[in-house]
Structure formats: structure tokens, C-alpha cells
Specification:
GO terms for molecular function: DNA binding; DNA-binding transcription factor activity. By secondary structure, this protein is of the alpha/beta class. The protein contains nine helices and twelve strands. α1 packs across α2 and α1 packs across α4.
């Protein structure tokens, strides 16, 4: 006998399971909390199992049966969305809404290039962006606040799938008057240890900080940290004013907000690179519009830009 549950109930269940809180799920879905509670109670009665372990403050934890059911529901809802896209002809015409997370330092340099071309090719897709650090982006993906994220894979766990867009290598950043800036010509590559006695301006962002600490460890250098900033452009501006050097991967325009310049200095050390990728939760089937964004990002950025 067929069980009498609805797609709406399944989508409500998926959102509650992601957030482990019925009130938060209700806010995300723009429905009342009572609608969520009623739908979950009806779904549990229909299935004859307890999907959640209720806690205080409307927090919930998936029961063992609920965890197994969530895996099946995710697969089913992905297939349902794919069926809807096929029925609407989205294999030929990509439409709908897409929320893309983006790592803050990448956003001003790479995102406008992608968006301009994506908007031109897929005018029927409404794209919204969520700019944040790497740690926040991982949490946003798992909570469903964004569909995919353009980000470095630093600190990424096996809870995510990736689509490689580009590979970026570390370099030193100095002021135009620095001894390694190259004067009127191109700067010569150096070893990181040649900067060991100078002040270091640290980019203090989750996972980025650990990555650069590892580069110093590989080089056998203990950096003389003078300032720590979470703002990418703040770091660049302090370097431009001659307050110290920094290490970065993203190459951007030499200009800064305060009108001064910076210079990228190549490094001779055998340092690990960073993968720039589109990221989404493991096992989640991407919509056609998300696939299109991945493919276009690779096309626009995958040429070493």
C-alpha cells in the first residue's frame, strides 16, 4: 500500500534535519513554525517511525531511523527536481534561482568576470551571491543557505564534492620601494627566507592563516608578525605603505584603496598550491543552472587568470 506523504512534507523534513531546529527551518522556508511541527508529526505518523529526538528550545536531533531516511529523501528530492527541470525544458533553457557563495578575497577580482558572462548566456537565471570566509561558506553550504560556493579547498572535509576551476600558487607581496620590488623592471624570484628579518603582515582568516603558517614551516622561517588583519585589502594597503610584506595566492591589480601600489614577487620555494573550486555538499545532485555556473567559471577563470 502506498504511503500518503507529500513532497512538501519531505522538503520540510530535509530543512529541519539540516538546521536541527524547527523554528530556524520555518524561517528559511517562510512558513509558520506550527506548519513545520504539524507536517513533521503527520510524516512520522504516516511512516510509523520517530524521525527526530525532540530537545528544548525547539531543537531536534535526527534519530537513527531519521538519519537513514534523510539519505533516501535527499536522493528522492534531487531526482524530483531533475524531473521538474526536464519537464520544463531546462535542458535547453536554464532558468530559476541560484545562490552562490564566494570567498571574500576572490569576490572582487574573479566574480564580476563570471557574472557578466553568466548573465549574458543565461538571462533567465536569477543569481544571488553570499560573500564570506572559508569556514562560514562551509557552514552555509551544509545549512542550504547557498547552492554552491566558489572558494579555496583549504580545510575542506569529505562532506563536500568539488569541481576544480583553477590552481593558484603563493607569492610574496611588497611595496614598490622594497628591495625585491624590481624597480622599473620585473621582480626576480626569491626564497621566503630572504624576508625572514622583515615585518610580516598576516592575513588572519580561517584556514588561510594555517596555510601560510605551513609555508613558513616548510621554509624553516619564523615570521616576525607585526600586524594581523582579516581584511584582504587592509593587508594589501599596509604592505603598499611599506609596513611589511605578506604572503598571498590571489594576484590582483597592483592598486590599493589608498592609491598606492603593491608588487607580486615570485617565490622559488617548493610550496603547495591551492585549488580554486566550486564546492557543494557531498552526494547532492546539482541543478542544471548550478552545473552551468560551474562550467562557465572553469571557462572564464581556468586559464591561469
Amino acid at each position: 500500500m502506498a504511503l500518503d506523504y507529500t513532497l512538501v512534507q519531505l522538503r520540510y523534513f530535509q530543512e529541519v534535519a539540516r538546521r536541527e531546529n524547527m523554528t530556524e527551518a520555518a524561517k528559511k522556508l517562510n512558513v509558520t513554525q506550527s506548519a513545520i511541527s504539524t507536517a513533521m508529526a503527520q510524516l512520522e505518523r504516516t511512516l510509523g517511525i520517530d524521525l527526530f529526538i525532540r530537545q528544548k528550545n525547539r531543537a531536534v536531533v535526527l534519530s537513527p531511523a531519521g538519519r537513514r531516511f534523510l539519505s533516501e529523501v535527499t536522493t528522492f528530492l534531487d531526482a524530483s527536481e531533475a524531473l521538474g527541470e526536464a519537464a520544463q525544458g531546462l535542458g535547453r533553457s536554464v532558468t530559476g534561482r541560484l545562490t552562490v557563495g564566494v570567498f571574500s578575497p576572490i569576490a572582487p577580482v574573479r566574480l564580476p568576470l563570471i557574472h557578466q558572462e553568466f548573465e549574458k548566456r543565461y538571462p533567465d537565471v536569477t543569481v544571488n551571491y553570499f560573500e564570506a570566509d572559508l569556514d562560514t561558506l562551509q557552514r552555509a553550504l551544509l545549512s542550504g543557505d547557498c547552492d554552491i560556493a566558489l572558494m579555496y579547498t583549504l580545510g575542506l572535509t569529505d562532506r563536500f564534492d568539488t569541481y576544480l576551476v583553477d590552481v593558484v600558487h603563493p607569492h610574496a607581496l611588497v611595496s614598490p620601494t622594497h628591495r625585491f620590488a624590481g624597480g622599473e623592471g620585473e621582480p626576480e624570484p626569491i626564497h621566503l627566507r630572504e624576508l625572514a628579518e622583515e615585518n610580516y603582515i598576516q592575513l588572519d582568516m580561517p584556514y588561510s592563516r594555517q596555510y601560510y603558517d605551513e609555508l613558513f614551516r616548510i621554509a624553516g622561517v619564523t615570521p616576525k608578525v607585526r600586524h594581523r588583519f582579516s581584511g584582504y585589502e587592509t593587508v594589501r594597503s599596509f604592505v603598499a605603505m611599506g609596513h611589511g610584506y605578506t604572503l598571498l595566492n590571489q594576484s590582483v591589480s597592483s592598486g590599493t584603496y589608498i592609491g598606492t601600489r603593491t608588487v607580486d614577487v615570485p617565490l622559488l620555494d617548493d610550496f603547495p598550491s591551492i585549488d580554486l573550486a566550486l564546492v557543494w555538499p557531498e552526494g547532492l545532485r546539482l541543478s542544471r543552472r548550478a552545473e552551468a555556473f560551474c562550467e562557465l567559471s572553469k571557462e572564464v577563470l581556468g586559464s591561469g587568470s
